[in-house]
Amino acid sequence: CDMGVLPNLFPGYQEVTDPAVREKFAAAWGVDPALMDDQVGTRITEVPHKALTGEIKAYYIMGEDPLQTEADLGLVRKGIEALDFVVVQDIFMTKTAEIADVLLPATSWGEHGGVFTCADRGFQRFEQAIPPAGNVKRDWEIISLLASEMGYPMHYENNQQIWDEMRELCPLFYGVTWEKMGDMGHVQWPCPTLDHPGTPWLYKDNRFDTPSGKGQLFATAWRAPAERPDDEWPLVLCTVREVGHYS
């Protein structure tokens, strides 16, 4: 999410519907802002439905195994089977990779360096531990090669070059330099300036970012599950997300 994988956000939690944000990223990437989509995209749970209606014809899946991990696997399977073309970029031969039309093998975390982003808003730099085995490439290399073949040249040299481009475009992350991560080991955003040490907590003085200063909770109406146990399949397996039985 920090890096913009949500369909409504650029990196740094900047809205795709904001014209000024689109112009900023377009200028950095050397493209016409008029060519950038100003609409919110499709969420992963909506993909099977749109595949079945024909709205989505192809699916590029990176580091995800929807045929194994998504809710309502029967629906997901039908949706993927309805697609014309499936590309999977992953480090394992997952259930989804097995049915891909094109499989792009990527390096694992031990075979490349990079940055982890954590649920506590922390960035941690890590280094390559072993050389890659087999005919694999780093994720950013694969994306760069594909973009270049499709008419948009990408010529990144290393992880730091990509990181520096990202933080220059993201006010929340600007102060998290490559060197600072190496020195401190762990930097939490917001980190807006080069001399900023990072933000261990978001809400000062026990106040949330709401008019009342309190956290706002909400409830949703109960809805019966789409799949129920029966004589043939009598068990329900829950892993971690027990309330919603999501995965």
TrEMBL record:
EC code(s) of this entry: 1.17.1.9
Kindly list the biological process annotations in GO that this record carries.
respiratory electron transport chain
Cytoplasm keyword on record: no
Q: What class of enzyme is it?
A: oxidoreductase
Cellular component terms, GO, for this chain's entry? Answer: membrane
Query: Which keywords does this chain's UniProt record carry?
Result: Metal-binding, Oxidoreductase
Keyword check for Metal-binding: yes
Which Pfam families does the entry link to?
A: Molybdopterin
> Which superkingdom, per the lineage?
Bacteria
Q: Which residue numbers delimit the Molybdopterin oxidoreductase domain?
A: 41-148
GO MF term set: formate dehydrogenase (NAD+) activity; metal ion binding; NADH dehydrogenase activity
Protein's UniProt name? Formate dehydrogenase subunit alpha
> What is the source species?
Klebsiella variicola
